[in-house]
Every structure is written in structure tokens, then in C-alpha cells.
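Researcher: First entry.
Model:
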Amino acid sequence: MKINKFEDLPIWKLALKLTKKIYDFTSQPKFSKDFKLRDQIRGAIISVSSNMVEGFEKNNNNEFIRFLRISKGSTGEVRNQLYVALAVGYISQEQFNEVNKELEELANQIGGLIVYLENCRSNGKFKIR
């Protein structure tokens, strides 16, 4: 499958879906009043998709890989903040489990794309578009 625009990336679509879920959580009354955590987790989840796009749009696969790594790191940051939200009672265990699992899956998919791109580079087939 050839990817010509970032909107075609399945990982971008999943990141956008998770962004909506995080915004839904952080809009709840108790969570929304914790400005620091609310803004931190929103910034981190936005960073996931934003870094995918920034790397993709540079039209340089080395840069794409670099930004995918940043994106993957941001998924870990969001997961950590979800643990905090769970610990202080802003989200339920069920909400945590669902979104944490999806974030783990997203991180695995990002990691898989990084490995794929690195393998393509070593085989001389190193262009996503």
C-alpha cells in the first residue's frame, strides 16, 4: 500500500480517535478543573498525531522515523498521565483499561512502522511515498 498523504496513515487515524477520547475524559467536571493535568495530557495526545504529520510532511524518511519516535514517546507520556488520572479518581478503571490498551496498541503500531522503514532503508527501498 502506498501512502501519499498523512490522512491515509492508519496510525494517524487511531491517534485522532484517541485524542477525542482524551478530550472527552478531560472535559468531565472534576478533570477539567485540574488545569495542569488536563493541559498536560491534552498536549501529549496532540503531540502523538502532530509529530506523525510533521515527520511525514518533511518528505524525508529519516526525519519521518525521527518524528515517529517522538510520537511513540508521547504515547507513553499520555499513558503515564492516565495512571495519574486514575489514581486521583478522574477516570474509572474501565475507562483507563480501554484507553491504555488502545495507546499500547498505537505505540506498537508506530514501533512496527519504524522497524519497517528502517528495514526498507537497509534494503535500499526507503520511500514511503
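Researcher: Second entry.
Model:
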Amino acid sequence: MIKINILTLFPNMFDGFLTESIIKRAIEDKKVDINIKNLRDYSKNKHKQVDDTPYGGGAGMVLMCEPVFEAVEDLKKKNTKVIMMTPQGKPYNQKMAEKLSKEKNLLIICGHYEGFDERINSIVDEEISIGDYVLTGGELPAMVLTDSITRLVPGVIDEESSSNDSFKDDLLDYPTYTKPREYKGMKVPDVLLSGDHKRIDEWRKEEQIKKTAEKRPDLIKNRKRKIIGKYSLIDDKSEKKMISINLDDAYDFTPKKKDIFNVNKVMLVEPTFIQKIAKKNLQKKLNTLLKQIEIVLNDETDDEGASYVLGEIERMQALIITTYAKNLDNEYLSLIMLKLDALKNEVAIKEMEKIETINFNKKGRSR
């Protein structure tokens, strides 16, 4: 069970929050223990004052450090993490929620008025913000924090539900549908009705990536490496660029442009996949070369094509040795090299025949 103490000037704001839905059930099931503490109870002022005007002048009132110090000293245990809700804090996200849900004791301080006395920072473990905007106080942010943490506590909600949450692996959630199958011309995707769970899982993963790229591209582009399943995508537009990557056993190639990601280079590390892609790419190059060879062999009027093609065959053989040899099996490579040698001989013979024909014609005309 996780214990959460919330220090606030307005405890009544939490009445509805604690008595409804998942939070209420979690408290009743003793999965969480949430206590609302009134900051004014720790004021030594007879009027229970907890704020005052700022030194140096300025608008608004500032929370005094003394009552906050008194409260933290009273509520903090050995393993308590003290959090202050403030606009200048670290932006809150799902990874932070997962991390905080593993804590045993949390003490959340809600700010109000113009801000905190700066000395309060000395007793705070972490400052957190729920967004780049200003609210009247830290009560709503504290509720957001508490809700996001509570639902991740084991047993509070179904484990499968939390495992499919948005922002899991920095991806948004996949689209979901329920009855009816069709409404106003909008149909449920056929794959969800197929009963094929493997296809459904693949579709959902693809839709997660599409939705994230469309609605929150920052989740992908702001990271130098994005893990999706067992593969990773490297984004050169990130703030910290990956200058180079050295993998001795990897095979790299330039993929086709896609709508979701602009990828300049892919490096494969799985042997069977490497061999499949390497063969496919090599075959494309060979097909292009074979078309050139066919033209030369069938064109009696081309006097320079044979020399060009012979050079291309030699370049292809060199490419195979330097690039493909380490990724393809010897039997396949030997067969390809033998075929290229045979084609090279055939083109060379064709070129020699043309030379002899030209020389013969020259001799015939000179008589």
C-alpha cells in the first residue's frame, strides 16, 4: 500500500475527488491511504496566517517557509518523497507516474497565491508541473498526480488496462471501438472482427505508431532513438544527434520513404533478416545489370555498350565481395559470381566479334 499525504490550504476541494470512482475503491480496498492535511494547522500565528508580502516588493502574497517546514517535519517519515507542485517544476509524464507509484510514502505540497518562499526548496525532493500554464493553486495538479499514481498501484485496476495505456513506450493508445458495428456510415475495422489475435495485435501497434506520428510527433522526434517492438529508429533531427553507429555484423540500407517516418538509414542485426534483405537488394541490382547486358548482346549497332557493361560487371563483382560477402552464404555467392563470369565472357566474345567484323570490313574496303 502507498501512503499519500497532501498538504493544502483548501482541504474541502478534495471531498469529491476522494469519494468517487477508482480513487474511492482504492481507498476502501486499502490499496492506497490518502490523507489531506491543512497547512494552516501548522501555522504558529494566532490568525493561522501562512502567507505574507514578498521582500523587495511586488504583487501578490507568498507562502511562508515556517508552516511548510513544520508540516514536512511532522509528516515526513524515513522513506517519504516530498513533492512540490509548481509551474517551474519538471513536466509530468507517464514514466514519472510509474516511478512514483512504486514509492511507499509521498508528501505532496500544494502551492497557492504568488508562490513559495524560496527556502522551501531545501526540503523538497522534486518539483513537478502538469503543464506550461498557471492555475490558482496546486490542488488540481495534486489530484492529477494522485489519480495517475493510484491507478498504477497493483490491484487498483485491471493490469491489462494499464499495460495498454497511452504513453506506454512513448506511444499513444490504439483506436478502440464497441457496438454498433456501423454507425452513420462509420464501420468498425474488419481486423477487429476477425478473431485473429496476432493480426489484431499487429494492427493495434501500427495504429499506435500512426496516431503518435500524427498527433504527437514530438514523442518520437524529440528522442534520438525510438524503440518500437524489437527494433529501433534513429532520429537525426533530435537535440542530441547520433553521429555514427558501428556494428560489425550489421547490414545497412536506405529504405523507401514512408508517410509515418523519414528514415535515412536502417541497420539490421538479425542474421536471417539480414540475409533476406541483402538478397533482395542484390537481386534488384543484378536485374538492372542483366537488362543492360541483354541490350548489348542483342544490339548489333552498339559499338561502345560492351565495354561499358564489362566495366559494370566488374564493379558488381567488387561490390559483392566488399558489401554482400559477409551477409550471404558461400554457395549462393559462388553461384552469382559464376553467372557473372559467364556473362562477362559472353559480352567479351561479342565485343571481339564486333572488332573482328570491323577489321575485316576495313581490309575488304582497302583492296
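Model: Note on the second entry: The chain has three domains: 2-160, 186-268, 271-366.
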